[in-house]
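call fold(seq) -> tokens
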Amino acid sequence: MFNTSLPNDSYPQQWSANNSNSNCSKNDGFKYPLYSTVFSIVFVVGLITNVVSIYIFTCSLKLRNETTTYMLNLVVSDLLFVFTLPLRVFYFINQNWPFGSMLCKVSVSLFYTNMYGSMLFLTCISVDRFLAIVHPFRSRTLRTKRKAKIVCAAVWVLVLSGSLPTGFLLNSTSSDNKDNATYCFENFSSKQWKSHLSKVVIFIETVGFVIPLLLNLCCSIMVLQTLRRPQTVSREGKVNKTKILRMIIVHLFIFCFCFIPYNVNLVFYALVRTKTLKSCYVESVVRTIYPIALCIAVSNCCFDPIVYYFTSETIQNSIKRKSQVSRTYDIKFSEALQSESGSHLQCSLMTLKAKVFNTESSV
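ret:
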């Protein structure tokens, strides 16, 4: 959570003049047209897909479970960030921030809230799928909507505790006397990097990236091992396994593609800015990769709905199965009620039906 959405983090001229690496070329001027183009596309695509997703979750999808709880929170995280993109696009085009310090800080905070919130909510979905497939019976008490809401609340607290200090405690705007332009979250000094930002990078890389990455990989590997067991093979199960395998591959691809380039480069970027790495070549490579990696990371707003689609497909299959079972039980209940007119039997049958459906679980 340090230098958010636009790491122009170009070094202040006074500082670089006294720096031993002041002769290092900083060829990252291409980032502003790149940012304005990519962020405009992300705004349009991300807004449409996430609004459609939230409509499906709240209005069309009848089944409510812990998985949809995680996905709904992921949609909210994406939309909060998407709504700030027009301000960012304006800034990238004009290279001047006229909206005041508060909006800049809010924009910065929402950037990191979205990025690391997305990683954590995707991890929650992965862990939930692991519990449902690998430990379907023992996880029944863990996989409940109530506990999913508690987990989501904990994720929001964790993410906001990291993103809000980044946006509000640091001096996120600065003015250049040469062109009288106001920058949003750029031009941090070496002192700020060494005293605050390097510590923030360590925290977000560990809690927001390394741990979620390991959890996603471990859960996916164990799910795949479970699906390969002979005792899980069935004629019907082959189709389900194919869908689950496809869902896992899509999930891992989106997670790795969007977040690994940015977070790996972020470590080297911090080392360069704190002057731990003093190589001009390394600095040039890192500053060139950073805008590209950032644009890829921001695109997760557009890719997350793909996860919703593949995950929701298994939910829809569960709905179909429950509907078929429901019709079967309704027929049996009707036949039983026709043959037995006692009110006690009717009450017992309805209780049995409720128990059957309460014990059903979907992946």
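Residues 300-339 form the longest helix (40 residues).
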